[in-house]
Each structure stands twice: as structure tokens, then as C-alpha cells.
Amino acid sequence: MDLKHIRNFSIIAHIDHGKSTLADRMLEITNTIEKRKMREQVLDSMELERERGITIKMQPVRMEYCLTSDPSPLSNGEGKDAKASRGEVYVLNLIDTPGHIDFSYEVSRALKAVEGSILLVDATQGVQAQTLTTLTMAREDKIKIIPVLSKIDSPLARIEEVKDEVVELLHCDSSEILLVSGRTGEGVENLLKEIIKKIPAPASLLVPLPAGESGPKDSLGPDDVLRALVFDFKYSNHRGVIIFVRVLDGKVKKGENLIFAVSGEKFNSLEVGTFSPEESPAPFLASGDIGYIVTGIKKPGIASVGDTVTMAKNPLPALPGYMKPMPVVWASVFPEDADDFSELKLALSKLKLSDSAFSYEEESSGSLGRGFRCGFLGMLHLEIITERLKREFSLNLVITTPSITYEVVMKSQGKEKIHPHTIINSVRVYSPYFFPDDGNMETVFEPWVKMKIITPAKYLGGIMQLLFDHEAEVGETNNFGRASPEAMTAARDSRSTISVKMPLRELMRNFFDELKSVSSGYGSISYEIDDMREADVTRLDILVADEVINAFSRVVSKKRVEEEAEKAVEKLHALLPRQMFTLKIQARALSRIISSRTISGMKKDVTQHMYGGDITRKMKLREKQKKGKQKMKERGRVSIPQDVFLKMIRTSD
Prior knowledge:
Layout: E1 6-13, H1 19-29, H2 47-52, E2 59-67, H3 80-86, E3 88-96, H4 104-111, E4 116-122, H5 129-140, E5 144-150, H6 159-170, E6 178-179, H7 188-198, E7 226-236, E8 240-253, E9 257-260, E10 266-268, E11 271-275, E12 279-281, E13 284-286, E14 290-294, E15 308-311, E16 329-335, H8 341-354, E17 359-365, E18 369-376, H9 379-393, E19 397-399, E20 406-410, E21 417-418, E22 423-424, E23 427-429, E24 441-456, H10 460-469, E25 473-480, H11 485-489, E26 495-503, H12 504-508, H13 511-518, E27 524-534, E28 537-544, E29 547-548, E30 554-557, H14 561-575, E31 583-589, E32 592-599, H15 615-635, H16 642-649
Parallel strand pairs: 1-3, 1-4, 4-5, 5-6
Antiparallel strand pairs: 2-3, 7-8, 7-15, 8-13, 8-14, 9-10, 9-15, 11-12, 11-14, 16-18, 16-19, 17-18, 20-23, 20-24, 21-22, 24-26, 24-27, 25-26, 28-29, 28-30, 28-31, 31-32
């Protein structure tokens, strides 16, 4: 198809602003999916996405829309030729993106493959923190932004007030903001026309062949040139790695010999095609197209997001890639049964082929055995990966308490020297279990985050107290949006943006849930990693029957160590089932036991079968039972169920 009839765009928004529902209506209007096959969140193919009602993985889809004055739908007998005879047919390549802050990396990848984006804002909630983050990324990539308000059919919609917020944010005219309802389909047809009108068609970036060089390059034509940007990939047991590409230069078809520009791995294209939204084979992919290439590669680490696919016989330079994902949360994952270690390793390698944003490396623990230290983009990302390991690979896992990375300067290394971006003579600690004792440390450094909070002004007092409790530094506070009398009575407008800096450790300590609670659900945050700062922290160990449970160890602020110790012991006391012997649950930090609870052992009346006779017979049996219980207490080990580990890391349980 001619480049002028192609439009590549994405939908970016805060979580739960209606991206997937809007995409459903687009698919219906363009007849991409038959009505009998339609369902809610059709682009959310994972079971977890449908359960939670959120988008986790980006999903591309190709739609065809006829720009014509004849609005009547096509009959079953009419095909593409009939559609084309009515007017101009445009190919609309949509990439649906996640909205949660943990998956900003997914959004950054999608924006590199498109020329325009729909900035979707919920008319009932207004501009949210993640809206600002995704908008900033879109502006950096210099793509066309189309502002759209969703959920306009809701009785809670504040259309005029939210319009003012968007105008202030984008410095655009109010008439440029489109109104749609993903539930009823109102305004979606007009939005498709505006996409064709406002988003520029893709332009070929074809690099001319080097002049004056002898050899095979001089005889190559336009069909021998290819540069395609890899923005995602997945793994198939039968077909290997399937890469999702945006073709920028040239053309690619089945059976061609290709090469990854960065990794240098050669392969043959076993199949090429587009998404509708299932994989649909095509004769070729040309400049401007978004589609997939089946590589047949079954080795991990070959394909990578941001790499460039080019012709093996005429390799061209790699295109600029994306921001690399940086894990901010770390947790160790161990198989409950040591014999499942190899299965866990295989499962992680397969997940890595479909989710390049998480990392893992092998480690071992004295009490938990062999496992893996995994890095995640955030707490939600951690929950998604561990849930997929359980569901897709039927693995029973032990997951340690999530932690972050600390830089520790040991006393034996002398006084620390701090450079602007690096800390000299430091030890990087990923796991709380390996965090040194207080007597061996000189200084500890931890990462901080820069954060934006958007909230109705009514809740500022409670949020300020919450920020104080989480050791935050509050910067400037700005008001935006128009506060009408109606909106003020609803306590939803007159909103403020707060600039905050906070330890990443405190952000992980249930800050997001507490913010939602304090702001009645109206507060939202977005954050990015800032610099490293000195930290006043210590390691808190949890002992069960005098044995340290590595999975429950954590690094906490010294100011809160007693409170954290008491909470951890109380929670484990409530979760841990009774054993055959009496045991203690203890929290240890700063070289002392801070909190302790006792779980009494299960009891059995060993004399219940005896009737009458000398009392000494019963006394002997009870003394024998007492000695057995004491021996069991000295030698016995406590078996902790898997769900206890999961509930201990979830602060909401």
C-alpha cells in the first residue's frame, strides 16, 4: 500500500482511563473483528489482564478504514474491492499500551514505532500523574498528539473542567479536544477520521547505497535494502522467537536471509505478517508497515528490543534503540521443591523471551537452596511475573520480601569517596540477607525517586502528613484546572501537583495504597529514579524456631525498626499454622531481639484410652510425651506453606 494511506499510532493514558474499551470500538467500526467474535478487552489476550482489567503487554493491531461519504455497512458478500470502490482505504496500525507506572518502559517502546498518539484522558478523573509521564515521552519522540476525552457518557463526567486541564497541559485550543465514549461508541468514528487527517503518514528513511564502491553492493536494488526496528517479541515453542517490527526502510518477505544489526545473529524469515489482532501471514512487509517476523531462533539472548533487522547481504547501520529497562525492585525466587530448580530455570528463560523487562541471575541460600535473584520494574511487575510462573508453568514457589539495591561502604575499606555519579569502595547489596551487620558498615547509600503527585486540593493536608511519615522532601506545589462551583461541591477539582523526592525504600512501603486511601482514590503518582543518598537503615531478621528465614529478612529504617518488627511478627503469628511443638517467632535487629510471639504446639491427650488404675501409669505417659515434645522442639523444622510467603510480601493482606 502507498505510504500516504498508512497511519501508525498508539493510545497512551493513565491506568483505567478506557484505552482497551476505545480500541474495542475501533475494531468494531473498522470490521477488523466479526461481531460474533467480539468480547470486552479483545486486545488483552492474557488471562491476568482480563482478570485485573488492566493492560500488561502492548498489543499491535492492523485495521482498514474507508474514508467515504457512504456510511452504510458492507454486506457479507462485499470485500475489500467493494470497500475501495466507495472511497479511499487507509491502513491504521494501532499499538495499545499499558497505563500503569510500572510499565512505562512498554509505552516508550511503542512510541518509537509510531508517528502519532492519542492522549486519552478520563472525563471523570481528569489529568493524572501517569498522563504527564507518557506525554513527556511522546513529546521527546516528537510525535503528533491528539487529545481525547473518554467516558463522556458518564453522569460523573466533568467535560468542561477536564478540557481546561488538557488545554493548560498541551497549550492547545479547546476545539481540538475530541470527545468519545468507549462504552457507547459515540465520537469514535470522528476520531478515526481525525487520525487520518492529523497524524502524518510514515516517511521512508531509505539510506542511499554507498557510491563509488565496487562489489556486490553496486548491483543491489531497492528490494535488497531493509531496516526494521524491533519493538517487542514473544516466544513460540514451535516457531521460536517471533519479533514485532516497524519497517522503516525497504521490504521483507518470507524466506529471506536476515541479520540482527546489534547481536550479529543471522536467520531466515520463516513467515511475515500483520496483526488482525491474531497473527495473519502476508506476502511481504514494506516501509511503513507494522507486523511480525518468525525467526525460528530458540536461543535466549539473541533478540532484543531496540535491535534492527536488516539484510544479511547488505547490512545497514542499526537504528537508535530505546531506553533500557532498569530494575528497581529485587526479590529472590526459589522452588518449594529443590527438584524443581531446573524447571524454574527453564520457565524464567521462556518468560524472558516474552518479557525482556525483567532480569534474573542464579543464587543460593543456606535454608532455601538454589534459586534466582530477579529484578522487576515495580511491585505490580513482580506480582505479574510470579503469578505467571505459577499459572503457566505450575510451579510452587518461595518468594522473598522485595528489596532494592544498596551501596554499602565497609569499615575495612576506609572512608568513602563520593563522585557525582558513583560511590567508590562500595559493595552493592541486592538481597537483605546479605546486608552487613551494623558494626561492619561505615556508610549506606540508597536510591531516591523524583515523584509527581496529582490530587484534589481538599486532600493536601492528609497527603502532607503521609509524605512526612515516608521521609519525603516536598518541593513546589502548583494548582491547575478550573474549579467550578459544581466541581468544588463534588470535591474533585481545584487540583494540585506536588513535586516530591522520596527514598525508593519508602515508596515500596505501601505508599501507593496509602495515598489512594488518604485521597479517597483521587490521588495519582508517577516517578523516576533520581540520585543515591546516605541512608539510616538496618537489617531486620525474622526467626522461626530460632532459625533465620531468609525470605522474610528486610532492610528497614532505624526509626521504624520497632514498628516494622512488631507488625512482621504479628502478621506471621496470624498466618503460620500450628505445629506439633511450641515455637517462637522473633524479630531481630540492631543485635537484639525486638519482638517475640509464641505459637503453642498442638496437644493430644495420650491417656484418653486409659480407665481407672494407678495414676502413675498416666504420669509416665505424660512424662514420655513431654520428653518427645522437647526433643521435637530441639530437632524439628517448621514447614512454612507457600501462601504464607506470598501473603507476607503483600501489605494489603
